[in-house]
Amino acid sequence: MLENLILAQTVELMNDPVIASDELGRVVLTNKAHSKLTGWSQEEAKGNNKRLLYEIPKTELLDKAESSFREAILYRKDGTKVTLNASCAPLQLPELVDETIGQIVVFHPPSDESIRGHQSSDDFVSTVSHELRTPLTSIKGFAETLIHSSDKIKPEDRIKYLRIIRDQSNHLARLVEDLLFVSRLNNRKIHLVVRELELKKHVDKVCEAMSYQAEGRIFVYDFEDNLPKIMGDSDRLEQILSNLISNAIKYSPDNTTITIRAMRGDLKLNKIKISVIDQGVGITEDDQEVIFNRFSRVDNPLTRKIQGTGLGLYITRSLVQSMKGEIFLEKSNPKETVFSFTVPIAKGN
Fold first, then answer.
1. Banded model confidence at residue 59, pLDDT cuts 50, 70, 90
2. What is the third-level CATH fold of 2-110?
3. Alpha carbon distances (Å) from 56 to 41, 53, 75, 291, 341
4. Measured distance CA(228)–CA(15) in Å, rounded
5. Max avg pLDDT among 45-49, 186-190, 332-336
6. Exposed, middle or buried by CB within 10 Å (0-12, 13-18, 19+), for 337?
7. C-alpha to C-alpha distance for 240 and 260, rounded to whole angstroms
8. What percent of the chain has pLDDT over 70?
9. Do the beta carbons of residue 62 and residue 77 sit within 8 Å?
10. The Cα angle at residue 18 between residues 16 and 19, in degrees rounded to 5
């Protein structure tokens, strides 16, 4: 008798809604938290079929002697629904462990982290859909124009339309590649081959590969004398440099300088600091706070004409961190922007 009283009082004092039902599915107990959330008084709820008060998809496990945790729908008295998490367990007598005499369900509000996760996922899908739709719309529109009005289009316009289709296809391919890479990052499927690297050799390689994009800009090296070798993955290091230098090119006007600087950082941390410095449009304080987020792009009239996925710096930060370094926006104004990252110095250097 005392045990039943303690149990009833405990259920009544719980902040989460509780519903218990018998083997026929009739509600035998609810608590005040349930009444407060749904509008059903405890007297009104008692005796009703449990399906009137809640629904838990795939409840086949609940007839067995095991507990489970899953998403559930709680029905309010006014007919509206509340989606919650639910802990479910069968009710059994101690002397009849193989026989289920009912079910008890405790409903839990989603955690703040879960809500943020769902919102982040929804935002990600929405942004990806928009990013994919934009180049696809251009490709489809100009392709249909060429198909249906080919005989009316001037040769120079035909070439122009084909170039647009090519450029948008390349943009679409880059977006897909970035999305696949982000997926691998999130699933921790990026494999690094870490070894000693000569930094200048890889900077030379990246700058040479990007020289065609940098037409009208001048690359300048500012390397500290006798820099030691670093530890890192050569492919990922070049990807980091490519992303930062590509941004410097895209967001700076012709006849400006892009400086790649390398120097020893804090000697206690045993790191080399590498900076990419441009003379571009700069980044506002508001944008600086989110610049490393997924799909974040600088909101500037001069940058809205530049295509990009908004994933470059997000990927870059993840790669730097995977090589035990840090990346940060050191400085930005309308005359100079400095992105810096650190990489470990090779042992023995």
1. very low
2. Beta-Lactamase (3.30.450)
3. 21, 10, 11, 41, 49
4. 60
5. 45-49
6. buried
7. 13
8. 79
9. no
10. 160
Tokens of 87: 């802990």
Distance of alpha carbon 326 from alpha carbon 301, whole angstroms: 30
Residues in CB range of 134: below 8 A, 6 or more apart: none
Pick the CATH number of 113-186 from 1.10.1740.10, 3.30.360.10, 1.10.287.130, 3.40.50.150: 1.10.287.130
pLDDT at residue 139 greater than cutoff 70? yes
CA 128 – CA 140 distance, rounded (Å): 18
Q: Cβ-count burial of 164 within 10 angstroms (0-12 exposed, 13-18 middle, 19+ buried)?
A: middle
At residue 60, the pLDDT reads 43
Residue 345 corresponds to which amino acid?
I
